[in-house]
Specification:
The chain has 75 residues and is α+β, with helices and mostly antiparallel strands. It has a single domain, classed as SH3 type barrels. The chain has two helices and five strands. A five-stranded antiparallel β-sheet has the order 4-3-2-1-5. The longest helix has 9 residues. The protein is globular. The relative contact order is 0.28.
Length: 75
């Protein structure tokens, strides 16, 4: 499972998701069984993230330095 995903579609969620932005994906096997991802989105008030259709994202691999930078920034 990739810890980070790239948003490729923000239909119905333009205030919460930005196309082309990298988001942190939290582990949630139950959600993933329903083709959903738990994402830390633009509304950082929910530390457990929100559920979005997996089809709005593509998993990406990042270099370790990029992962550290995103995690320290609260992504």
């Amino acid at each position: 499972m990739s810890e980070f995903v790239l948003c490729i579609n923000n239909r119905d969620n333009p205030a919460s998701l930005i196309v082309g932005k990298v988001y942190r994906r939290l582990p949630d096997p139950e959600a993933e069984a329903h083709h959903m991802f738990r994402i830390i989105d633009e509304d950082l008030s929910e530390p457990d993230g929100y559920l979005y259709p997996a089809s709005l994202f593509v998993p990406i691999d990042l270099p370790e330095e990029a992962k550290r930078a995103l995690l320290s920034a609260g992504a």
